[in-house]
Description:
By secondary structure, the protein is of the alpha/beta class. It has 2 domains: about 5-205, Vaccinia Virus protein VP39 (Rossmann fold, 3-Layer(aba) Sandwich); about 215-280, rRNA adenine dimethylase, C-terminal domain (Helicase, Ruva Protein, domain 3), CATH 1.10.8.100. Helix content is about 40%, strand content about 20%. The chain contains 12 helices and 9 strands. It has helices at about 5-15, 30-40, 60-65, 75-85, 105-110, 130-135, 150-155, 170-175, 215-225, 235, 245-255, 270-280, and strands spanning about 25, 45-50, 70, 90-95, 115-120, 145-150, 175-185, 190, 200-205. The chain has a 7-stranded mixed sheet, with helices on both faces. Strand 5, helix 6 (about 130-135) and strand 6 (about 145-150) form a beta-alpha-beta unit. The protein is elongated.
Amino acid sequence: MSLYEENKQIMKKYNITAQKKYGQNFLIDEMVLDKIIDNADIQIGDLVIEIGPGLGNLTKRLCAKAGQVIAIEIDKNMVDILENEYAYLKNLVVLNEDIMKVNLNEIISKFSGLERVKVVANLPYYITTPIIMKLLEDEIDLDLIEVMVQKEVGERLCATPTGREYGAITVAVNYYSEPKYIETVGRDKFLPSPNVDSAIILLKVLKIPKVKVNKKLMFEIVKASFSMKRKTLLNSLGSKNINGVNKEKLSKILEELNMPLDIRPERISLEEFANISNKFEEI
């Protein structure tokens, strides 16, 4: 029986449908599911956190490889299905929680003896970016984050300077991790099919950030820099007067850093933003 047929049977058995409000699109392609497992390099010493497990297509594969799986699901109907259908999986814990409200460090602390913590998930697309930033900003000791996201979002998170997708979120992700775009996944691989194609991305979380910087100040600068699309850095950042830096002072900073005065934010790397930020602190 195919996963499509299996999932349809389970949904009929429990008299449920995919909930649009939770962004439920269940991945039903076995080759893609296996590829996700392979890319995450799941080992018996791993604690894996799955966000939005849905009907459990990925969950059972994670449990076959990992030492412990914690599935966090906001939909009580899905929690009931997981607990009933996969009660035999002794290394699975299902939590009926909102991922944006849980303390992951507290949850992880209850499971000792495991070597690495990984997040592997098919994320609900309506809240992808907030989830990823929560995982990165909450200072969780993660080894990696591998997630299925909307293709456009995946391209943005993994973009390089000069690319049209490059933006403030790209800089933030690069501060915390080494992002990699794994592959595009067609909309026909899901039940129900979403209106967009998807992408698998992998973020190898850094133990120490790539740059030494006042993080709060740098991200304020990054946000201001990208606040005015298609404007030069002088026009966008120079107009915000952060730390008392106006256009004139910003011009001097750029000259000191040997950066062109007409440079646009989408051409500036994380390291260059860090250099700019450090100059702001000196003023």
